[in-house]
Amino acid sequence: MRYFLDSSYLIDFTGKKHKRHNQVKQILDLLFKDGSNEFVINRLVYVEVLRGIKLIEVKNYRDTLEVLQSFQTFEINKQVYDEAITFSRFCRSNGFTLKGEGCAAIDFIHFIFSKHYDLNMLSSDIDMDKLETKYSEFTGSG
To answer: Disulfide-capable partner of 7 in 48, 82, 104, 122 (CB 3.0 to 4.6 Å)?
Structure first.
């Protein structure tokens, strides 16, 4: 299977102090053991995960960078951005919004990115489940 690792999931995985670290680590360990699985991120995930590491946390930064570099990196192309905008507008027009406006824009991009590349999304963000329901309405498949 092919998986898109959302920044929230990777932050939980790389941050040992995060409350979901152990749960996420167990899931990823199982998925990593299956050599047929592929793991994908995009450059936005790369930035989101690394920007949260303090400058004094040199070892954590290096370790996290190594983990991120082990994944395939796919580009967020114009088609992804355009569909994320359209899907976001559809949701807002139907009275559906996500948490903070800045985060919501990124959530829509990540969600549509996973759909565009036909990737199974792994995310710690509960909004992604809500987006799945709305996406079925958006595409007319629900």
So the answer is: 48
List pLDDT tens digits, range 1-39.
999 999 989 988 887 676 888 899 899 999 999 989 999
Domain covering 2-139 assigned CATH 3.40.50.1010 in the classification: yes
Q: Is 142 exposed, middle or buried (0-12, 13-18, 19+ CB in 10 A)?
A: exposed
Closest CA to 130 of 106, 103, 107, 105: 107
Specify the amino acid at residue 80.
V
The mean pLDDT of 50-71, rounded to a whole number, is 93
Q: pTM score, two decimals?
A: 0.90
Instruction: Tell me how far apart the alpha carbons of residues 126 and 103 are, in angstroms, rounded to a whole number.
Output: 13
Does the pLDDT of residue 64 top 80, yes or no?
yes
How far is 82 from 57, CA to CA, in rounded Å? Answer: 37
Burial class (CB in 10 A: 0-12, 13-18, 19+), 121: buried
Where do the structural domains in the chain lie, given as residue ranges?
2-139
